[in-house]
Design a protein that fits this description.
37% of the residues lie in helices and 25% in strands. The protein has a 6-stranded mixed beta sheet. A 5-stranded mixed beta sheet has the order 1-2-5-3-4, covered by helices on one side. Strand 3, helix 2 and strand 4 form a beta-alpha-beta unit. Helix 1 packs parallel to helix 2, helix 1 packs across helix 5 and helix 3 packs across helix 5. The chain is globular and about 50 Å long.
């Protein structure tokens, strides 16, 4: 499970708790703080929990930073974490700060709740539909942005993407990672989700496999569609599949929720995600959801079909995104590719 569920001695309540931390991956310390907080909270949201009672922050300050750099960056990082926590309806009441060779940022999220407030991730049945609530490709976008200043790396991808497209993808990845999965967690209850997890370091296929292995029923997950930040699939291919993005093992940070929903509810879930979700930084890719596969009878494993459909997700604010928001087909039409 994404979070531990500890039954308490008092009246049918459970403590649900999680912790997570990682190293910085974007240049903006404020946004890095928001991303770290969103990443911690995602473990609660993956179980359909929408509230958090308390957060602690874990922060490692690098020995390699001089005093001026520390005084500039660390308060911004802490403010970003705190602001995201407040957006999630909770607060940061403590934590721990240490000095270390590397910057590390993360935290702990805790909530006391009743059984009706969380969805155990083991109820998928044959006929369910798989939905993903954020596009893939964050690792590729972040790396490609770093390569803008590395000619030997940039030369490998410059034929498939422009510098402007890389910058737009990096901004989209940053805003997507900073967006809370709270809306999706609430909709899991509304549309009777049977199981869910969040997509992070093991990539889509890794987390899909983890979720499939937890199911009570003998089921398998088959993934047909891959929503990916625009141009990131082309970059991955140009690098000789360095990231294994199409294979589903490219690491994501603070990715979306992968949710198993009844077939008749999946399109409604996607439509409501699109109408409710603006995401951090404005309407864009993070404000949607995509039907990506099906649940069938099987051996509790997940797989991606040989030639999955790549859904190019345009970065928010781009002309393509504005056009997509006007003309995007209803999600139920996309189900036809499975049958």
């Amino acid at each position: 499970m994404d979070s531990c569920v500890i039954p308490l001695r008092h009246g049918g309540l459970s403590l649900v708790q999680t912790t997570d931390f990682f190293y910085p991956l974007v240049e903006d310390p404020y946004m890095m703080g928001r991303i770290a907080c969103a990443n911690v909270l995602s473990d609660l949201y993956a179980m359909g929990i929408t509230e958090c009672d308390n957060m602690l922050m874990l922060l490692s300050v690098s020995q390699k930073m001089n005093e001026k750099e520390r005084e500039r960056a660390m308060p911004l990082l802490m403010r970003g974490f705190r602001d995201a926590a407040e957006e999630g309806g909770t607060s940061v009441t403590g934590g721990q700060t240490v000095v270390n060779p590397w910057i590390i940022v993360g935290g702990v999220a805790s909530v006391v709740c009743q059984p009706s407030e969380f969805i155990m991730p083991d109820g998928a049945v044959p006929g369910d539909v798989l939905v993903l609530t954020k596009p893939l490709g964050t690792q590729v976008a972040v790396n490609a942005h770093q390569w803008l200043d590395q000619p030997e790396r940039w030369n490998k991808i410059k034929l498939v993407v422009s510098k402007e497209e890389v910058k737009e993808a990096y901004q989209e990845a940053m805003f997507s990672m900073a967006t809370l999965n709270r809306t999706a967690a609430g909709l899991m209850h509304k549309f009777q989700a049977h199981a869910g997890t969040d997509v992070t370091g093991f990539g889509l296929l890794g987390h899909a496999n983890n979720l499939a292995a937890q199911q009570r029923s003998e089921v398998s997950f088959v993934i047909h569609n891959l929503p990916i930040i625009a141009k990131m699939a082309a970059i991955s291919k140009a690098c000789g599949n360095l990231f294994n993005l199409i294979q589903g093992t490219s690491a994501e940070t603070s990715g979306g929720l992968l949710v198993c929903l009844p077939r008749e509810q999946a399109a409604k879930f996607c439509s409501e995600m699109k109408s409710q979700g603006s995401g951090f930084g404005g309407q864009g890719a993070a404000g949607g959801a995509w039907i990506i596969g099906i649940v069938e009878k099987g051996d509790r494993r997940a797989r991606i079909i040989d030639k999955p459909r790549i859904i190019e997700v345009p970065p928010r604010g781009s002309p393509a995104a504005n056009q997509d928001n006007k003309s995007n087909p209803e999600p139920e039409l996309q189900l036809g590719c499975y049958y």
